Each structure stands twice: as C-alpha cells, then as structure tokens.
C-alpha cells in the first residue's frame, strides 16, 4: 500500500510527465521514475478499483515508456510494465489461469498510426495485400468464457492477462451468455472465448434513477458500472443490473478426435458468424472487411461520428487481420498481438483541478452551481466550465475547491464531474459554500419540500428576466435567428430591452449605432422577428418558459385549445386528464395562467402581432395521420428522429413518450433496443419501417 505522502508525490510526478511539451526521460533514473508512476496507477486501477487517471492519460505515459525503451534497449528492466502481460489482481476472488493469455491491444490515435500498422503487417507477413476486419471496441469489462462438451464451465475476468478472477456464477446471470451451445456440431470439444460485458445506456439510466429515488449515489458511467458489477458477491444484484455481453474472439479450442478444422475457424469473420449462429452476441452486424488501410481509416473516422447513436458505449474501433493463418504468422509481443490494433476515439475523460464554483440564476429562479476548472481538452473540445446541478450533487460527490477531479464528456456532449480524487487532497482544499441569498438580487433563497434545487422567488430578479428572454428567442422556442444570448444581454444592459414584449418593440435605428450591426444584419434581425410572429402555438407556449412545460407538454396543451388564453379556463383536474400531465405540471400551468401579469403580457404579445390562435390544429386534424399515435426508435435510414416526429405531427399524428397499449405505430431503425422488444409483446402495436411510415405520410 502507498502512504498519503507517496500518493501525492507520485501524482505530482504524473502531472509533470503529462505536461504539454514534456521531454522524454533522458536518463535511466528518469525512466525508472516513469515506471514507478505507471506501477502506481496500475495498482490503483486493477487492485483498488479507484483510478486516479483517465485511460487516455495512462496510455500517454505507457507510450512514453515504450518509446524510450525502444531507443534505449539497455535501459529495459525485467519488471518494466512493458515486459509483462498485465497487472495485479483483486484478492477477493479465486484466481484461475486463462488457457491463452489475454493480451492488451496496441493503441492508435490517428491515421498515421494505422498506416504504420499496415506497413508492419505487410512487411512481416510478406504479402502484397491483407484483408482487415473492423469492429467496435466495446467499453466495458473484459471476460473469458470456457465451454466444455457444449456447456459453460467457467467465466473469468481479464485480471493480469495470465490469471483472472473466477466469476462463473455472475456470468451465468448475464442473459446474453448461453449456458450451453452446440459446439459439438462443429467438432469442438473445448473452447475459450473472449468478450466484453456492458450495460445498455437505457438500462444504465433506469438503474441510476432507481438509486437516486432510494437516496443512493448514482453510478459514474456504464463502463465502470459493468466492470464493477462483475465483482459483486451477490448474484441477484448482478442479474438486476441487466448486464449484456458481446463476444469478439475465439482464443483457443480443442477439436474432437478425428475432427477436421471447421472452415469457419479459418477467418476471424467466420468465427464471429459461427458464434452468432450458436446464440452468442457477436458484432457481426457492425463488422466490416476491407482490403486497403485507407478504407479502414475512412470507416473508423465515420464511425466515430456515429458512436452516440449506438445503445452501448464504445471508445474506438478494433482492426484485425482476418485470416487466422496470417495472425499466427505475425504472432505477438509480450504485451499485444501484432495482428490487431485499436483505433481510439477522442478522449472523453481527463483529470483537472476544481478552481472555484460560481452560482448562476436560471429563468425559473433555480440556482445552479457551476464548477470552473483548469481548462482540459476532452472529446475534441476544451472544457473549463461544468454544471454541478444542485447542492446535493456537491455533497454526494464530496467536492471541495482545490480538488483534483475526473471529468467526462459523454454522448450528450455535456461535460460532468465523475468524482473527486480524494486520495490526492493535500489539506489546502476548502469547502464549497452554497449561498443563502440570490447572488444577483440578494433575495432569500427558497427550496420546496421534496426538491433538490434552491430558487430565487423574486420574479423581477434581473437574471431571471434576461434568461426568460434568452429562452423565448431560442431555436426550440420562437427561433429568432440573429437574436442570440449575447444580443439579449447587450440590449438589456443598454436599457433597450426589458421584457419579452420588448423584443417586438425594438428600436432598429438605435441598433445602427452599435459596432457590428450593419444594415444587412439589422434587416435580417427585423425579418426574423417578424417571421417569429407566425410560429405555431406550441412554440409560443414553450417559449413562455412555464415551469415544467417542455416541448412535448407544450404540444399537448396547444392541441387542446383554439386560442392560447383558453388555457386560463382549465382547472388542475382537467389538465391532469391530458396526456403525460401530472399534478406538479398541472399546478404550474394553473399558477402561470392565474397570474395577472402573465395574462397582460400574453395580451400585449397578441396586440404586437403574435399569432395566438391554433391554425395548425385545424390543418393537423385533416391530416393523413389524424388520431394515430407514433413512437420512433433506433437510427432511421434517412431522417433524424426530430424530423420524423415533425412530419407525423404535421399530418395530425401524436408522438408518445414510451411503448404502451396507447401506441399505434412503432417506427424502427437500426439498433432499436428495448422499445422494440416491448412493442412485440403488445398485439395492438404495429411495428413499421421508415419507408412504410413515409408511405403513410404521402
């Protein structure tokens, strides 16, 4: 174990090695310091399950070590991290030996790395052309499965690559892992298979919601959740987390006496198809083969742009030589096979330092703490600000000013702090003090029972006034092009804009006195403001910023009235009878339309020319899809989901939030997931393709 002083010293060395422009170690002593840093982080990751680095940062250190040892072979030591397969084991499970070592993959981060890999493969294999298989690099927990005489007899974690933790009971809880498979049909007596255990993004979200409802801290991300679940001692809890497994490699097999080698096992592509036919989840649908490395590179770069459409987390692509004979010819190093390489996508995690927390006031008065961190490059962008959501998040994550934090930028591109690395605290950190008064207008803050958010309840608070106007002109509301956040703030500070109706009373002659506002830009803004007067009623409803009323609820409300002000006649009970409107939402709507200042504002907007009657309601009622309900799932071939939903609504169709007996049509694309499975169990739901949907629209 490492002492507190040793941890802080090693982390300081880590940051030094990771500094931009840092020179490679120039002496054996400096190189040994780098090895010690890597050994420390391996121990944190594999033994303590509490890493202090992002994976990409570890990879950079490892590459640095490899580069120096390649140039200075005399400096290589027998206990260097490059000279063994893996790392130490967690001592809580029985240790078992893999039939074949589970090696790591060499990593590449750009097209030049892949071209270099291709050059080496062609050179070592003495061939003019190689067929490559390319498949997703799943981001979960690695496992090894052994089947004997068609039965699953053992499951194990990767461990140190030579030995792993025996987790057969937990593996048996994973429904996508067959307990038996007809390998004997292909003459196979024993087989060892490699795979990755994952948690579907939707299942991960649902599980975290359950934890939150119980007052427990949510899991950090699907990858850590999947890997950690494999080591849980309670099989019932493992089953409850709905793990899934993809198998991607046959590492070893023994044939029955007198049995010839099956043709399927002569290529990687054939082996994955064999596993698929036997009931395993192998990536046959995602697998592509190419004869040129340029085609491989194009596919990897294209797939990176689509990674967020998948129901699982992936962090790259794996490129493998397809022919098994060539794989055996190329062989392996002590660390990785020479016939495969991982193309890693842009990093989504990094460590940084929490410098301060600022408190922002939203349009409904909500106080949001925002962490200011040392700028760090993640997922292709530099991140310096991160929302902490509310006071409870700060407490749950035990964050302090000065902490080293692990930052992640996930599929929704919104960065968040995964956790504080408490082991790196020096004692100089200070608590984050949540304000008791509004940071803008100094009014006392208020928190409703059962809510996590503190609010400023002064409706005239300048911050709320500005945020309401920013929301009103935004893309999803009135969509006034050229009237973005910066202009709202500028016009407000100049005293030219005080409230939402003021948007339609703007003095365009004054704009000409501002730098950057020429005649063309002023004309464009004026036209955009005029055009917004004809926006459909549901956009206006959403733009008013009624608390809890999102885009979907705004559409439900708009479809029930001929004029916006009719909503003031609805009781809370009548509103709750509408689709997906509960007591909290209904109460907020009643409160908004019973406030005289809001009614006066709506009347003023109408006097200024805003269309408040529901002309779209009459058009939709006569549409081809009138009275029908729809839900879209998966990746559609040609349409974005928002485009398809808009087409359905324009023809009178109604979009539901989930699969139920009220649903008429489920329109499915690729990777439809759990919604498709649920719809299959309801006889009244019709499952159709995008092409069939488009025919209905026509």
Automatic annotation (TrEMBL):
Class of this enzyme: ligase
A molecular function (GO) term: DNA binding
Binding residues for Zn(2+): 438, 441, 461
Gene3D superfamilies, alphabetized: 5' to 3' exonuclease, C-terminal subdomain, 6.20.10.30, BRCT domain, DNA ligase/mRNA capping enzyme, Helix hairpin bin, Nucleic acid-binding proteins
Annotated NAD(+) binding sites: 55-59, 104-105, 135, 158, 196, 320, 344
Reaction it catalyzes: NAD(+) + (deoxyribonucleotide)n-3'-hydroxyl + 5'-phospho-(deoxyribonucleotide)m = (deoxyribonucleotide)n+m + AMP + beta-nicotinamide D-nucleotide
Record-annotated BRCT domain positions: 620-698
Transmembrane portions of the chain: none
InterPro entries: BRCT_dom, BRCT_dom_sf, DisA/LigA_HHH, DNA_ligase, DNAligase_adenylation, DNAligase_N, Hlx-hairpin-Hlx_DNA-bd_motif, NA-bd_OB-fold
Active site, UniProt feature: 137 (n6-amp-lysine intermediate)
Record's keyword annotation contains Magnesium: yes
Alphabetical keyword list: DNA damage, DNA repair, DNA replication, Ligase, Magnesium, Manganese, Metal-binding, NAD, Zinc
A GO cellular component annotation in the UniProt record: cytosol
Family, per entry: Belongs to the NAD-dependent DNA ligase family. LigA subfamily.
Function: DNA ligase that catalyzes the formation of phosphodiester linkages between 5'-phosphoryl and 3'-hydroxyl groups in double-stranded DNA using NAD as a coenzyme and as the energy source for the reaction. It is essential for DNA replication and repair of damaged DNA.
Descriptive protein name: DNA ligase
């Amino acid at each position: 174990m490492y002492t507190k002083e040793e941890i802080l010293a090693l982390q300081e060395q880590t940051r030094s090695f990771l500094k931009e422009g840092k020179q490679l170690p120039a002496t054996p002593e400096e190189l040994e310091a780098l090895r010690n840093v890597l050994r420390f982080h391996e121990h944190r990751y594999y033994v303590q399950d509490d890493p202090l680095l992002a994976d990409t940062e570890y990879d950079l250190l490892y590459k640095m070590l490899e580069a120096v040892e390649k140039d200075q072979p005399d400096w290589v030591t027998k206990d260097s991290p490059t000279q063994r397969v893996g790392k130490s084991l967690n001592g809580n499970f029985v240790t078992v030996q893999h039939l074949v070592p589970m090696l790591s993959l060499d990593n590449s981060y750009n097209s030049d790395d892949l071209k270099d890999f291709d050059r080496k493969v062609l050179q070592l294999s003495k061939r003019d052309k190689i067929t490559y298989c390319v498949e997703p690099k799943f981001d979960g927990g690695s496992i090894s499965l052994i089947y004997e005489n068609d039965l699953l007899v053992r499951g194990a974690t990767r461990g140190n690559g030579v030995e792993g933790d025996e987790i057969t009971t937990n593996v048996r809880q994973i429904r996508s892992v067959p307990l038996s498979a007809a390998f004997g049909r292909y003459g196979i007596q024993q087989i060892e298979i490699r795979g990755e255990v994952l948690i579907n993004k939707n299942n991960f979200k649902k599980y975290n919601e359950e934890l939150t409802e119980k007052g427990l801290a949510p899991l950090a991300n699907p990858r850590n959740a999947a890997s950690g679940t494999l080591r849980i001692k309670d099989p019932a809890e493992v089953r409850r987390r709905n793990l899934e497994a993809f198998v991607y490699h046959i590492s070893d097999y023994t044939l029955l006496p007198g049995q010839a080698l099956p043709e399927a096992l002569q290529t990687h592509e054939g082996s994955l198809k064999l596993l698929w036919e036997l009931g395993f989840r192998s990536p046959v649908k995602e697998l592509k083969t190419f004869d040129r490395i340029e085609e491989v590179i194009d596919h990897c770069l294209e797939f990176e742009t689509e990674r967020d459409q998948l129901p699982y987390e992936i962090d790259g692509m794996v490129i493998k030589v397809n022919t098994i004979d060539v794989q055996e010819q190329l062989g392996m190093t002590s660390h990785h096979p020479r016939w495969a390489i991982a193309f890693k996508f842009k990093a989504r995690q990094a460590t940084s330092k929490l410098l301060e927390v600022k408190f922002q006031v939203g349009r409904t008065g909500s106080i949001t703490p925002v962490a200011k961190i040392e700028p760090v490059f993640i997922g292709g962008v530099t991140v310096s600000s991160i929302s902490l959501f509310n006071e409870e998040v700060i407490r749950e994550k035990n964050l302090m000013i000065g902490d080293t934090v692990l930052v992640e930028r996930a599929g929704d591109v919104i960065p968040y702090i995964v956790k504080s690395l408490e082991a790196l605290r020096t004692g100089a950190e200070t608590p984050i003090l949540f304000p008791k008064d509004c940071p803008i207008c100094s009014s006392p803050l208020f928190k409703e029972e059962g809510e996590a958010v503190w609010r400023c309840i002064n409706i005239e608070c300048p911050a709320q006034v500005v945020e309401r106007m920013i929301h009103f002109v935004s893309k999803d509301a009135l969509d006034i092009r050229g009237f973005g956040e910066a202009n709202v703030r500028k016009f407000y500070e100049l005293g030219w804009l005080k409230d939402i109706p003021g948007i339609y009373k703007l003095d365009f002659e004054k704009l000409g006195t501002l730098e950057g506002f020429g005649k063309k830009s002023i004309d464009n803004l004026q036209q955009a403001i005029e055009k917004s007067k004809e926006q459909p009623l549901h956009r206006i409803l959403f733009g008013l910023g009624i608390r809890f009323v999102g885009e979907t609820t705004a559409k439900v409300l708009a479809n029930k009235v001929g004029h916006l002000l009719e909503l003031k006649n609805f009781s809370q009970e009548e509103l709750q009878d509408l689709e997906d409107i509960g007591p909290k939402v209904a109460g907020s709507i009643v409160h908004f339309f019973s406030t005289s200042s809001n009614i006066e504002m709506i009347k003023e907007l109408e006097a200024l020319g805003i269309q408040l009657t529901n002309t779209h309601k009459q058009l939709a009622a006569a549409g081809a899809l009138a009275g029908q309900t729809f839900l879209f799932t998966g990746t559609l071939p040609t349409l974005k989901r928002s485009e398809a939903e808009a087409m359905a609504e324009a023809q009178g169709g109604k979009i539901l939030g989930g699969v139920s007996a009220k649903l008429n049509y489920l329109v499915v694309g690729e990777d439809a997931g759990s919604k498709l499975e649920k719809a299959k169990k309801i006889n009244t739901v019709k499952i159709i393709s995008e092409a069939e949907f488009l025919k209905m629209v026509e």
